[in-house]
Design a protein that fits this description.
Layout lengths: L6 E7 L6 H6 L8 E6 L6 H8 L3 E4 L5 H15 L4 E4 L11 H9 L5 E5 L5 H4 L4 H18 L11 E4 H6 L11 H11 L4 E5 L13 H22 L14
Parallel strand pairs: 1-2, 1-4, 2-3, 5-7
Antiparallel strand pairs: 4-6, 5-6
Length: 250
């Protein structure tokens, strides 16, 4: 715990058998109280590795629900475990677990409700092997989103995220896409609800066993990002009333 706040790390897993052990062993259990792994119908030995590591909270999807669907299971289980701070860490070892204490402290201090590990701050993205086309797309989409949302994030596309319980209880993430654009929709919802978002520099690693979406899925994601940004602006102007930005029902 930090400041008497329970810290839970969630691992949305899909074919992460080769990298799960490396990821798990770098988690700082001096502050992390629980770990949740949600396996999205992997075809490898992810579940076996998770059990060998002693992960107690394992959810096995009987069908593949997608990246967004995986996160929905992660966050609901974290809330069920009475988490005060929830940190999403990809088990493919692309993001370093060594930043968990920094992300947790940002939220436990009460200064922020959301914190992101940014690959764009500093030189982490290209230095870590991010393909140039993904870097350029990241920069364009982030510029467009900042313009539409009146914000100044360095990137909206990192998978390293930390949330307080308050955010997860008040942002209606359950209605979001089950695909990759879930991440982007959730950040739009967070801005719309008036929460502040902190960022810290995060190194990243692109290597053979790290997960990465292909060009087709990247294109679908990019179009989804543009749509989400426009929906945000149209809702702010009062032209539309999208369910995406409706507060979660109590």
């Amino acid at each position: 715990m930090i400041n008497n706040k329970k810290v839970v790390v969630v691992l949305p897993a899909y074919n992460a058998a080769k990298t799960l052990k490396m990821t798990y062993e770098e988690i700082d259990f001096d502050i992390v109280d629980d770990v949740i792994l949600v396996d999205d119908r992997s075809s490898d030995e992810t579940i076996r590795v998770a059990r060998e590591l002693g992960i107690r909270n394992i959810i096995e999807h009987t069908v593949n629900k997608g990246y967004g669907g995986n996160q929905k299971s992660c966050y609901q289980k974290a809330l069920d475990l009475d988490a005060d701070i929830v940190i999403m860490l990809h088990p493919d070892y692309q993001y370093t677990p060594l930043l968990i204490p920094s992300l947790a402290h940002l939220l436990a201090s009460g200064l922020y409700e959301v914190a992101l590990g940014s690959r764009i701050l500093g030189k982490g993205a290209l230095k870590g092997g991010m393909p140039l086309y993904k870097y350029l797309a990241n920069r364009f989409l982030t510029f467009f989103q900042n313009l539409m949302m009146g914000a100044k994030l360095s990137e909206y596309h990192t998978g390293y995220r930390a949330f307080t319980r308050k955010v997860l209880e008040n942002v209606h993430y359950e209605i979001n896409s089950d695909n990759f654009v879930f991440d982007n929709q959730m950040l739009a919802q967070i801005w719309y609800a008036g929460y502040e978002i902190a960022e810290i520099t995060c190194p990243t690693k692109y290597f053979e066993d790290a997960s990465s979406i292909n060009i087709r899925n990247s294109t679908v994601y990019g179009l989804g990002v543009l749509k989400t940004s426009m929906l945000y602006r149209l809702n702010k102007w009062g032209i539309l009333r999208s369910l995406l930005f409706k507060p979660k029902s109590k």
